[in-house]
Amino acid sequence: MKTILVTGSMGQIGSELVPRLRRIYGEDHVIATDIRPPDKEQGPYVQLDVTDRRAFYDTAKRYGADSILHLAALLSARAERDPLLAWEINMGGLLNALETARELNAQLFTPSSIGVFGPDAPKDRTPQVTVQRPVTMYGVNKVAGELLCQYYFLKYGVDTRGLRFPGLISHTAPPGGGTTDYAVDIYFAAARHGGYESYIAAGTFMDFMYMPDAVEAVIQLMEADPSGLVHRNAYNVTAMSADPEMLAAEIRKHIPDFRLHYRVDPLKQRIAESWPDSLDTTAAENEWGFRPRFTLEKMTEEMLAFAGGRNPPEDGPRGNSP
Ligand code: VAH
């Protein structure tokens, strides 16, 4: 990757990925774009609606992008409330990204999700290759997206690559409209109020990963030797499987009287129950060396430190490595 165009750069992933990319490739080589105007000017920024194919192509062409990291999307719960808008943005935006990558001979990364799996996929250590019958519009978008990316690779030779992200936990930017957002909110609520009311029920296990591991995985995958990539669209990746009680128990090691209550959101609970409890990540480990650094313990230490406005502990892996 030399000149990188990022869409959705002000979202949960983009807010950490863009600064990391700029530290590695140079500020002027990373063009941040989003539908929203920038809240602070830092390096090249373009306000871009990814559903506008002409604008997408012209922006990538103008900056000579050789890699596109297409993050702009509506997440699961928001998509379930407005499925037609989700189809328009998630599929229309991806098709514009693919067409732009094809015409400019650029690499393309786009996130997939554990949401590609439905209730009839194996729940524990869900295999890289297994039945994908999601019951959400978001999941349908992600399965169709994986197939579209693989089609562009096979038919046009576009270097498409993707990751099936679990719930991503970060302190930099709030998540927006996801089912797994509770796992971010719980840390801020713990640090500020000493308690949290979870909309996901106890015993509902999902995969999670700390954002620094997700950011490194994107860069590692995009720089990997393409000859070794078999399951390029898209790889199972995760760092831990947890339910609200496990997160609370880890938080109580720092805030002993942390209180966890429940007010289950039927829509988000239904989505969460349709997803795997844990993924198998062997393909990513074998094909490009995926190895997350953060455990639940280390992530909790860092999340509580940032959420409480303190500096994180010095020992062990750091959220934003220099
Ligand atoms: C969501 N955070 O909750 C996203 C993600 C696996 C979950 O796709 O929709």
UniProtKB/TrEMBL annotation:
SUPFAM superfamilies, sorted: NAD(P)-binding Rossmann-fold domains
Stored InterPro entries:
Epimerase_deHydtase (IPR001509), NAD(P)-bd_dom_sf (IPR036291), NAD(P)_epim/dehydratase (IPR051225)
Q: Name one GO biological process term.
A: L-threonine catabolic process
Q: Which GO terms describe its molecular function?
A: L-threonine 3-dehydrogenase activity
Pfam families attached to this UniProt entry: Epimerase
Q: Name the source's superkingdom.
A: Bacteria
Occurrences of domain NAD-dependent epimerase/dehydratase (ranges)? 4-237
Q: Belongs to which family?
A: Belongs to the NAD(P)-dependent epimerase/dehydratase family.
Give the protein name, as stated in the record. Answer: NAD-dependent epimerase/dehydratase family protein
Native species: Cohnella candidum
